[in-house]
Amino acid sequence: VLMPRGVQPDISDSQLLVDTLQIPYVVVNIGEAADALERTLEGNEKLQEICGREEMAREAKINMPPRIRMTTLYAVAQNLPNGGRVVNTCNASEDYVGYSTKYGDAAGDFSPMSELLVHEVLQIGDVLGLPEQLVRKTPSDGLSGMSDEDKLGFTYAMLDHYVLTGECDDEAKKARIDRLHRLNLH
Predict the structure, then answer these.
(1) Which of 68, 77, 104, 146 is most buried as measured by Cβ atoms within 10 A of its Cβ?
(2) What separation in angstroms does the CA of 7 have from each of 50, 58, 130?
(3) pTM value?
(4) Under 8 Å CB-to-CB from 26, ≥6 apart: which residues?
């Protein structure tokens, strides 16, 4: 299920993936739903009073579309003739530092990549013969305008090495990884 929010330039990557793997697909544009929910929340005077702000917080705006996508995936799955299952797309690297959206990409009925670090996921892409532009694409949530690594403050290679060995040459980045991991243990 391809789920752009309105016009989304990186949806062409999703299209390339389904074309390459010859996967049947449907496009469900979540733009109107996301825009309507954002307007509803920002137009709620009582909510503005309680929150002390007129606009939604930046992180709330970034995480809302993934949660709408998950709702959409479950609706599609329940409409399939024999039912369907929703795949959690998180990997062990993201899970270690909590880099996912609760009830968004972190939700699902099963999680095939939960034990795989990012470098292992990339290896699978290579073995499957996926297009290089997909396998080596700069990871990004597609919503914040930043790469995952810019948002995290360290590279996935550094994170994977640390998870595997407990070693990190940069004390500040090690401290950040440790902090994010502790925060994610709830």
Answers:
(1) 104
(2) 33, 20, 25
(3) 0.87
(4) 1, 2, 76
> By three-state DSSP, how is residue 176 classified?
helix
CA–CA separation, 186 and 175 (whole Å) = 18
**Amino acid letter, residue 147:** S
Q: Which residues contact 2 (CB under 8 A, 6 or more apart)?
A: 11, 14, 15, 18, 25, 26, 27, 28
Compute the distance between CA of residue 107 and CA of residue 26 in angstroms, rounded to an integer. Answer: 20
In which element (H, E) is residue 166 found?
none
Q: pLDDT of the chain along its 186 residues, tens only?
A: 999 998 887 889 999 999 999 999 999 999 999 999 999 999 999 988 999 988 888 889 889 999 999 999 999 999 999 989 999 999 999 999 999 999 999 999 999 999 999 999 999 999 999 999 999 998 887 777 889 999 999 999 999 999 999 999 999 999 999 999 999 997
